[in-house]
Records
---
Amino acid sequence: MPRSPLALFVLLAGCDTPTASEEPPFLRGAQPDYSAPAPVLRRLTYSQYVHSIDDLFGTGLVLPDELEPDTRAAGLYAVGASLTSISALGVDRYESVAYTIAEQVLTDPTRRAAIVGCVPVSPADADCAREVLNALGERVWRRPLSDGELDVLVSVTTTAGMTLGDFDLGLSYGLAALLQSPYFLFRVELGEVDPAGGHRYSGWEMASRLSYFLWDGPPDDALLLAAESGALLTDAGLEAEVDRMLQDERTRRGLRAFFGDMLHLDELDALTKDPSLFVNMSSELGPAAREQTLQDLDAIVLEDDVDFRTFLTSTDTHIDRTLAALYDVPAPVREGFGLTTLPISGGRRGFLGQASFLALQAHATSTSVTLRGLYLREVLLCQELPSPPAGLNTSIPEANAERPTMRDRVAQHLEDPSCAGCHQLMDPIGLGFEHFDGVGRWRDTENGHPIDPAGSFDGDEFVDAWGLGQVVADHGSFAPCVSDTLLRSALGRTLADEELELAEWHADGLHQEGYRLRWLFRDIVMGPAFRTTAVAP
Amino acid sequence: MSRRGVGPRRPLAAAVVPSRRGFMRGMLQGSAIFVGLPLFQRALNGNGTALACGGVIPKRFGVFFWGNGNRPERWIPATDGDSWELSEELAPLVNVKSKVSVVTGLSVKVPNLLPHTSGAAGLLSGMTPLSADGVESFAGPTIDQIIAAQVGGDTLFPSLQTAASDCSGESWNGVNSRNPPETDPYALYERLFGPTFRLPGEEGLVDPTLGLRRSVLDSVMGDIATLQGRLGATDKARLDQHLTGVRELEERLARLEEDPPSLESCARPPAEPEASYPDIEGRPQISARSRIVSDMLAMALACDQTRVFGHYVTDPVANPLFPGATAGHHNLTHDEGGDQPEVHAITVQIVAELAYLLERLDAVPEADGTLLDNCCVLGCSEVGLGQIHSIDDVPIVVAGGLCGTLRTGIHHRSYTGDNSAMLMLSILRGMDILAPSFGADDAYTEDGLSEIEV
């Protein structure tokens, strides 16, 4: 979300000096007036669906790799989920997986016992069916079921039980109905009249909003109790619940979901590289790179709760043997991931030294200075760049003796006025990473010629990728961009112009609190955009 | 005689489900109303084949799409009209040349503001795509869905979307409403030829669980309808799409209980797909996937499981490593110098996949001819010269005569940059859909492309 130039100026002024001791502590102003837009109807993303099933029925069920495909809008699956619907293919897949889940749950005595507390007296025992569906339905739909809704589900269940002569087989149809319902597949958070004035999300709706934001999964029983008691509608009750939830292991899942979405880490599954050019390429590389990035974020944001901007500058990182080979450092552990400190001599630190960035923002057979520069601007700084105009010849000259390096080859892009307007914003930054090849391995030279990674980024000079990481970390748009993106993810939509002041207020709070992102999760939950809404149109 | 399974037959559906046609009209915002022609009009098209074709033998339409365009100077045949020779890039079509018309020189008339997306949306929907807040979407339905809304009601699948790579496809019902393809060949096989498949002459399924599954879908449709009552117009329309999908599935389950259509050439495809098609040396198996899917599509059409398909080789901007290429496809279209021999070679590979599909369709006997004769397959990409994102002179192949309603065996070249929407209108009319127009704004047309019509 681009900010107004004035707002950006204010933030830049606030963030310019990284050493806090030299200036008085920054304090954000009062919460601005806020008027919420209409609510949006969000579909569960793939990961939210899977986490819901994990939490409802226990982990370990066999689930398909794909359901309704998620779509990124404004950079986030979380936003695409409030714009798209369920296609015919998605309907088929949701039906098929519902029966798969029901069968796995009801044929596993432990899982079955967790949801079936009664002993059916007949294949069509309506009382037992009602008891099971009433309790389970509240967890699956994240709200109590009406009598009418329960009647339909019990009827489906008992008809099936009678037809097939088996209570559990019958129940599988009731379960399948719960799981295919829009009340499960979509998050129905439409708001209610607030007796104090305006509209707010109801207690049940707040429970879903909290759990999918913080945990990327459904409410647990304690949260549902808090919803029922009305506690989530008071400041004190909400604070108590968010603090409890942030202590829960499931917050790791929420953090991973958010950063995986924001940083496009899912695309690492489809990482395509020519293995004859990149000996480190393997099918394990992409997933390993994602794990490195997410473990580092987990440590910074949740374990250590420190300035999250160190994500771009820290030499501490979590790697496995695959990545150790790529980065040419000793593997810290034999199996899995372990903490290591990268040597300064390696020239590599922070996220911008990881394959999650270097390999993904590159081509199958080469680096891409444009993709790397574009990603920094769009994803890390939330700046929008225009699409290339039609009718331009975009080819770059091939490498030869006169133009051995990428810097030589893109020189024309950067001089031709029809290209330079945009490419000046991307390529000089991307050239800072040219010591890292298309998969992220260090190279001293390109085609036998020295690489010059120096440049400047919005007025700040850097000599190489090591310095570039600091420049981006200190960039006045970086922390606000992460803050805004987290807010968009929490709300499942883009921000209206009238909300930019509130977005800045949250970003100011992040600054005030020393850029501890964990604090921002709580601040967003307690803020008005998360709790209030307009009437559905 | 078909036997019914146990359970109520759609007890709630009639009460809560608007007609599919009504839904499509809503998606089109009333701007155009498509009405199927009554049978007697279809019978009167003057070439004598119509009674068999379009009657007992259905007409079919399919899109064969690939991303990133072609090299126009090596694509466009040297001469036009009836007497022409295949160009270098069209050479793989040699075995079906007489059943193919190549149309060159057509322009997509929407403003080319979103590279690749403008071309795809303009060509297939005739409408300028939407773009706001980083969200891009087609603004209206693509031609395959306009056709499916008319002819899809009689088959197991109103339309099928398939793919030869992991892609999103270019089939849309309207804003933010995309029909993603089944990208896994094995999953596609299970859908089409799995345990529920019945050959002609076999009886419908007798399985009580079909009725039970329908009763579950009825409860789902009831929930959707109730929820819609609480939503604003946009979200209501989103749930309309969900509802349509549920209703289609419900109807498919009901149809499985009926005897399958008796079509002489319907059979299981010759081979089952592999469980997976992993990349080989970093290169996706596009050809293998396209071919096994083509085998399935031919039989899905021959068995009348669907009459509309979209087969997406790659998406616009897709960047896979094709065999022999030194960089990804999209990458090459922009960065390869000279006359781009690698881009050319990839285009030839893609046209070879189109040829494979057409040959499979042509190998299926149907009435006096072949399945291909009763199809229209629109082979196309979203740009012409990908290097400059050109949407002038986009590559178009129109294959199959659609029961004698479309001319085949010609190269028609427009020297005036005619509107590509004209061809779409001709196809709609060939499908017996009485469409007054196709496209919007600068792409709007009320005229078909007469040179391609019989």
---
Amino acid sequence: MNKLYTTLFCLFLLRLFAVTTAEISAAEPQTNILTSHKDAVRLNYWQIAVDVYSKDSLPALPDSLWQLFNPALDDYRYTEGNWLIKTGISIPDTLNPKVVYGLFPVNLVTAYEIYWDGVKTGQTGVIGNNIESEKPGDFNYHLPLAQELLTPGKHTIVIRLSDYNNIPSWKWYYGDVLLGRYDVLMNKISRLYYQAFFVTGILLIPFLFNLFLYFARKRKMEHLLFGLICFVVILDSLTMLLPMLIEMRNTYIYLQYYSYNVITFLFTVLFPAFFIYLFSFDKKIIWVIAAITLILFFFFTDIGNLFNVMALTVLIFSSIITMVALYKRREESVVISAGIIAAWGGYYFDFAFAGLATTMVICTSFSIARQFARKERTEKEAQLKSARLENELLKKNINPHFVLNTLTSIIAWLRKDTPSAVRLIEALADEFRMVNQISSLKQIPLKQELELCRAHLKIMSYRKGADYKLETTDIDEESTIPPMILHTLVENGLTHGYENKTAGTFVIRQKNNPGSVQYIISNDGEFNPEDSKGSTGFGSRYIMGRLEESYPGKWKFISNKTPGGWESVIEIRRS
Amino acid sequence: MRILIVEDERPTAEDIKLLTEQILKNEVTSIHIETTLESAKFYLKEKPVDVLLLDLNLNARDGFDLLKSAVSGSFHTIVISANISRAIEAFEYGVLDFIPKPYNIERLKAAFRRLKSSHALDGYAVKYLSVKTGFEIRIIPIEDIRYFKADNIYTELHLSDGRVVIHDKSIKQLIPLLPANYFRIHKSYLVDTGKIETIQTLGGGKNNVILKSGETLPVSRKIIGRLKASLDLQKDRSGRNI
């Protein structure tokens, strides 16, 4: 984020430059002043003259040829050509002889020579009169000044420059020149670079982490967006750091400018988009924001106000989204609001992007960490719940009472009718085998569920000395449902509706509606009026637990006494 | 002997009937099956029985309410159930025996033998007696009973607060349910030996016991020897304990 500070640093200067030149264009030429207790001064009050290209030394031009420089006048004139620019510097007192001073051109293109009191003291690149003859200068060009040049009194600085190799949208006069203590200015520059390295290093971790999370966690967009935000800020830092890492011509300035534009735009769109996802708002809003940002970007920004306008835009969008989130009491909206407030503070201190990026990375990391903790908790709860459902499933069918009563019945049948006893044992084995197969599954084919119901009805027919049947209509046997929910309904019906009946029919129907599927389970049992509460009790709890596990929020379960018995309806909505 | 089997699985009920008939042979005068709680209650109201064979878990409903009213009746209750978790509680309320499922003929035989036993099995004795008072069932802890007095085919329970309530079972029927320290001192009297203060010897081989609560009850001649021995034994025990 502090890399953006660098950008700001440069463009901040530009902005002042524009303002001050506008101010002085009407006034008398003034001069810059460097005193012994000043670290640095930005050179203003430039005059300009068109230069005639030659390899000769500096021509002595009459004052009448110089005019006050005002970039607001004729943009096109400064895209390509040779110029001389000049300003005065006044040193009222004796400077400390132990301190080295230097000239620091910033963003000045393409090739130039520096003359101090008419004597050529420095040069970067080679001045030319076309793209071939001109050689661009160094990106990191600084000129230490010899002690004897800085005597008290008035001095003239002339810069002779040519600009052919640069790309036209960047004008040389966007550049700036600082005069000051060499050590202090060098320190400032290296500090900016260190900060940029620091930021890159720090953001690399959340970037990689969120990228990994995006792929690991079912492609959750907020992780991708947050990773991208980090990546954009890293790109910004790298844009600044590149000339520091490798030798760069100062034509890189254009690339840098272009890159900052894109990055600023991305940043302005990505942050609100991230909030939209974080707070689960309508994703279409992102397109509206992107469109507004694009319009602002192309029609309402220029080199001087780009950062300001974009910083305001991103702050306003983010604030609105966060306020709505706060109003709707979305998770994490409080933490993010704190970050937004801090970001406004940063904006006030001309620190908008850096401030926003910093506070946002902190707040969102915090909130993502919290979300994680929460998610882990709910996942654990869900796991526990699944385990409990599985346990209930097993308990329902392999519960000791069921087994002991069935064994008792088997013994009774053995004494009376051995083949029946064998068939009962087989039905019991069938049911157990199926329960064993499905106990750990969350979904089973309907076919298997129906077999399970049939096996159970067979067992109970032998046990009760009755005849219970299962009929099905319109069943799609390949569709799947959570295990043992129909079985539970059959079992419940059998337990409560057939005390006095020795025959019973259970009917399971499937009804496919446009947006949902219904399973209707009915029977012809006799139920007491007080049994009509229906949807409480262990069986219903199991069914509802299973439905919620498989179709969260998309199911309905109705269970009611009917004139001829009992009917339960399970409805599952598709998506 | 008139027997009612209450069991919601008819094949099992019929099996129990078969085994019961094998055990009791011609002692059985009638044997009947009911498969629901309601029909069982109805049957009990209408027809006298001597032994009720009861499954506690009928169609997933708690048979304990039926049990509490059944044990207040003039017949004995034997529970046959897979749900043994409430066996102790069933004994405390006065069931004669509790047969876990799956049962077998030996276990059933043992249960019927207990009909003639002189006291409950160690640790399985009744703790409460259910008494019908009007339409409700009153539960009386047995330590609140000073003594039992025969009243025709019923038994008077003389309570520590001075009241007397009637239990539908005869003294003979109560004996197999009560712990070993309950002693039938007379054809008409049954007391907890722990509640006897002293034995009063009258002339002519007649004896009385004086209870700690003050009552004087007659002791039958045939019993006095065993009663004294049993009291001595208790004294010994308590002496050793001290």
